[in-house]
Amino acid sequence: RLTVLTSLVVCTYLNSGFYAHQDKKRMMDSTDEPDFSASGHMGLPLPRATGRDAGIVTKNPGNWQHEVSTRVTEHDPLSVASVYISAAVNQHSGCLSVQKCYHTGIPPLLAYGSHCTLCFASADASSNGDLVVRRTVIGHQTPISAVAWIPPFHGPAWSTFSGHLLSASADGIIKLWFVDSFDEREVAALHLSSAASPTTVTSVVALHGCYLDEVESRLFIAAASRSEVFGWSLSLPADAEGGVVSSAGTPPTCFKPLNRDPALCLALRVVRLAVPASSTDPLILLLVGLSTGQLEVWALAGGQGACELTLAGSLKGHTDWLRCLDCIQTHQPVSKPTTEGDVPSTAASAAQFLVASGSQDRHIRVWHMQLTDKPEISSAEAKAKGMELSLPPAYKSCSLFARLECVLSGHDHWVTGVSWAPPPLTADSRPLLLSASMDKSLIVWEPSHPPLLTTVGTALKDPSTPDLWLEKQRYGTVGGNQLGFLDCAWGDSGWSIYGHGFQGNLSSWSFSTTGGRTVQCSLTGHAGPITDLSWSPTTLGKDSKIPLPADNYSMECPFYLLTASKDQSVRLHGLFRTDGSGCSPPVSTWRELARPQVHGYDMNALACLDALHYVSAGDEKVARVFSATAAFLQRFLPEEELVRQPGLRSSLPSGAVQAALGLSNRATEAFPADDEEDEIGTTNAIESTNGGPPDLGDPLYPPAEEGLAQSTLWAETRKLYGHSYEVFCLAAHPKGILVASACKSSKQESASIFLWRTSDWTIHQKLSYHQLTVTQLSFNPCSDDLLSVSRDRRWALWKAVPKSAENEIPEYCLAHNSPSGNGGHSRIIWTCAWNRDGSLFVTGSRDKHVMVWDPSTGARVESPHTMSNAVTALDLGPPLPAFNSAAGAPAQASILLAVGLECGSIHLLALGLSGGTKRTCSFTALTQLPSHWAHGGGAVKRLAFYRPCCIPVQGEQQARFASGGEDGLVRIFTIQLSRY
Q1: From 492's CA, which of 409, 620, 760, 854 has a CA 20 to 30 Å away?
Q2: DSSP label at residue 459
Q3: For position 201, what pLDDT does the model report?
Q4: Domain annotation covers residue 659
Q5: Cα–Cα distance for residue pair 210/208, rounded to 1 Å
Q6: What angle do CA 937, 938, 944 make, to 5 degrees?
Q7: Beta-strand (E) ranges in 337-456?
Q8: CA 112 → CA 96, 161, 518, distances in Å?
Q9: How far does Cα 105 stand from its chain's mean position?
């Protein structure tokens, strides 16, 4: 008996607190079977807000009070919250999976691998229906290559808020996770052990599993690696109430690996079939897609001691590598008896399912498979059922039939992913199939008639009517330089579809059975290690000529965050705001709003001059200057600000384009130069071409992947030549009058620091001191001082010579440098930072030490603080409330210090300061960020507090800082300082 309650508010505690979600919820008696033959079994789509806005300047931010964040750890005295996680999907097919829980009214969790990190995303009411990464967990030591949720035993209708997830990595390790609404726990770890070469470590290519019993305490797991298929039977103990606990019981049973050499095993699926009218254990089918194009079907008895696989048969047809598989099963009868003595006329007592296989031959083949009793049947009935496959002796009373349902041809390149729509399949329903291809398209296929058979082997459709599978919807991109899709999935109970792009993006579209479609918020991230990041200054014009007015504006949130990566791109992350929906409040979420630079070299460094200009350097000898476009301002700047600055858009290029084989972003419209630039000349200027403003897509949503890659480029205005080797680091003067740059070097002649005038982009001065590569440069935020640190284990402080005129650009000379002997660092100095008033600076080194220095004397302040690992990034934040660093000690002023280590962990410390004739300092460890917020795939490459860091938020003091690591993840955190 099924009861539908409408407008029921379901509150779920997700991450930072309780979020309300208004949807329909089905409530059923545990002894009754739900009837999915009724219309509407697909569920309801999530309510989505219509009022949306994305911008780099927030006007009246009080209307957007709630910022989506993850749950704060209870023991954290600083109340640190993660408000943004940018993580790309790894470049592997099968590296994302959507949880099968469709009856609850709660959107399922999307799990995917990003480097070594497992990311969990969902689109619930807390983000007004937009897909957001909720939490992460460091799952592996090497990049994740496969992720798969284990489907519920009773099908999607019986799923709960929790489930088991499989993940595998390049080192051949498979992990089983128990995931619920609050956290995730590792249950078991399995290791591949090749029979041919036990010492060889091979990457897991494909992964899947299924439950073997109703209480979901026994699992069968299969994994493919190169030419072998591995399998395990695993038991989980039950607690006193009969529920399965999240820890492994007896050791897993492993069967002998299948070796299909010389063929490669590229895809697999595990299907559990109940044997009709028998007490025999369920039949486990293992479907393996090979590089020969064959789909092999292996049978395994589902008993406790089963460990032998039997080849049931091979399904042929594909002429190239079989890249992807997916299955969908029947779970419920078509109709219920009208009287007690009746039986359903079309009861699906025989187990049957559909298999979709995609290949590099550009075709999709749909197979129908059915397990029945073995009665005497006629030749006509046998022909209708298809080819009979062989089964183990334990199932001699059963027959397994397979027949080709159809061949779908609609893609122009490799088919890389297939996925069946989530609603439970019934014998009278028409399943939807989603396919992804390297031709940059996603296609939804639908049959004209139900494709399943009755128990007697006859089709439900009229035999005289041809059964056609037609293209119902097509998604994707046309043109451009981006590559195709690696995988696809259904989300939001079948009302959304996801496409895994080759660059690591996760594009999202809404799906409607009536044919409508809308681009939704996508998940994006860097596909390579982060090398640098920078907050935008709070000025809108070059040389600080157009400051942002203070009235009615808030500096609570920065304009944007720029990040550079070895994936050869610079990305701009900003706030995206949505109105409330139902009982949900207005929210603000961080999104990638633009991709100013897509380069041909790995990016090494960047520095912001103001909100509309920045300088970047790839792994080349040239640094490049970029300017925002009028199209960017039109999209992301409030209209009142554009009216207040009427000449702002006219001073910028209309847009920017990049040639197919070029490295420069050429302006699509020339913009007038300043008088000073007219006098100097423009020998390094980039020639402009005529063209209209770019199309940034639906203004209610941030630009999709296609728009980010093609329509959000910034115009390159200058090239800075002079360095002998690849530029390694950059820094901008706080007033925007100078840019400092340094390159890779193995000798002093090429280790010089170049100072560039931003007025004409000529070399202002060269500073020589270091012997090896300068690793980081930093200007004093309150003066002209410049600090440099190097691989030669030295730091140098450059002070400005007194100026004769107020507006004169200063000349620099070496004021202080590292002391000789044991007073300085003993290993490479990776990082340095100033405090807010420029009264001290800190350095971090591979020797695990953090040292504080007095810029007035160049002397070290107190003894160094030793960390547990090499220090690779640090930054000084806002002042902390006075506190006692030790029992009985007087309160002292302190500064918040964030330190990132080579192991990926992030530590927050209080740097206590005391004045007097001799300055002293002390370090107090405040907290280490949880491991799931760390950069587990490598070192922390950069930490940066937003300045002004300390701002009032409802009576509290809040700090905001960003981190980027070698794992390619970008994270933004907020800290409630007044709670300390």
Answers
A1: 409
A2: B
A3: 67
A4: yes
A5: 7
A6: 110
A7: 351-359, 363-373, 387-389, 398-409, 415-420, 433-437, 441-447
A8: 4, 18, 23
A9: 24
Is residue 236 assigned to a domain? Answer: no
- The DSSP code sequence of 565-621 is ETTTEEEEEEEEEE---TTPPPEEEEEEEEEEEE-SS-EEEEEEEETTEEEEEESSS
- Strand order through the sheet with 265-273: 265-273, 283-290, 295-301, 310-315
Has residue 674 got a pLDDT over 70?
no
Cβ–Cβ < 8 Å for 391, 400: yes
Residues 6 or more apart whose Cβ sits within 8 Å of residue 10 = 20, 21, 22, 23, 25, 104, 105, 106
CA distance 638 to 628: 15
**Helix then strand then coil, % of the chain, to nearest 5:** 5, 45, 50
User: How far apart are the C-alpha atoms of 629 and 638, rounded to whole Å?
Assistant: 15
Question: Taking a C-beta distance cutoff of 8 angstroms, is the pair 317, 362 a contact?
Answer: no
Structural domain harbouring 653: 558-773
SS3 642: helix
275, 283 in Cβ contact below 8 A? yes
Amino acid at 471: E
478 assigned to some structural domain: no
* Distance, CA of 178 to CA of 165 (rounded, Å): 6
Say whether pLDDT at 667 is over 80.
Answer: yes
For residue 297, the SS3 value is strand
Is residue 538 within 8 Å of 611, Cβ to Cβ?
Answer: yes
Q: Which of 183-187, 422-426, 968-972 has the lowest mean pLDDT?
A: 422-426
Cβ-contact 841, 853 below 8 angstroms: yes
- CA dist 763 and 136 (Å) reads 45
- How far is Cα 234 from Cα 216, in angstroms, rounded to an integer? 11
Query: Rounded mean pLDDT of the chain?
Result: 79
Could you give the CA distance from residue 896 to residue 57 in angstroms, rounded to a whole number?
26
Flag the least confident range among 346-355, 429-438, 841-850: 346-355
| Alpha carbons within 13 A on the beta-carbon side of 147 | 29
Backbone phi, psi, residue 777, to 5°: -125, 145
Residue 837 lies in a domain: no
Q: Report the domain count for the chain.
A: 1
Please report the pLDDT score of residue 921 as a whole number.
87
